[in-house]
């Protein structure tokens, strides 16, 4: 990676060169010398900055969908935001989470392999308390889940994966499915300890309770679709035309849309005093002669002119000519 100097560092370097404190020739010699950088093979870099940015965009949408979903399910204030997206060894992720936590192990076909949605106990027990009729607070002491609590947790997080499916829709059609719910990280080994994972950290607030939700995606799982996470793929996919079936469905729905048609007989202006004294039988004179074509509007736009008449004992308007499409109506 290339180190980028800040503006303050650039100004300090230029000042030192101009004052003679530093010699430009010495800088050139240092630049030609071989530079050695430390590389930790346990922290292999598998995701580029481009991939990290794409994963951030995807899971910002995921956070918004989760916020809507949990707000509706818990009927309380819920706020979820992406804090960071980073890559690290799987073993480091396991050591960083509490010994007692909620681990939702799931698969997402057509991807092969398992992923994990880890929910901090503060957040998980606040959800559980809210679902069971409480105010949504986490207990002082975290205990093991009962069978009923486990079933409740499985149900709410199984449906939460629909938000993940929606967030990834622009990249691939996933079918996430909850495989198991664990509470001890030591019993969960989805990949080898040195396998690089993408860790998406979501800050979560439920009422007054705060905590983290971490999504662990092993590199080996999404490796087949890594090219789709590039910016180039995003722009190309946005330019793709709709399938003929989608166009046909869209056109069919448009043709069934109802539009308001208004035939204006004319306009008139009266004073407030005249308006307040109107009685049945009074006549209001319009500003348009009887033989002049009527303005026919579609919504607020003037589209046709025509003449009034009747058909089958009902009032009707016959279209005479088409006005320039999209012409605005201006009141005189």
TrEMBL record:
Keywords: Bacterial flagellum, Cell membrane, Cell projection, Chemotaxis, Cilium, Flagellar rotation, Flagellum, Membrane
Pfam families: FliM, FliMN_C
UniProt KW Cell membrane keyword: yes
Cellular component terms (Gene Ontology): bacterial-type flagellum basal body; plasma membrane
Domain Flagellar motor switch protein FliN-like C-terminal: 253-323
Main location: other
UniProt keyword Transit peptide present: no
InterPro entries on file: CheC-like_sf, Flag_FliM, FliN-like_C, SpoA-like_sf
Coiled-coil region list: none
PANTHER family associated with the record: FLAGELLAR MOTOR SWITCH PROTEIN FLIM (PTHR30034), YOP PROTEINS TRANSLOCATION PROTEIN Q (PTHR30034:SF6)
Entry protein name: Flagellar motor switch protein FliM
Gene name tied to this protein: fliM
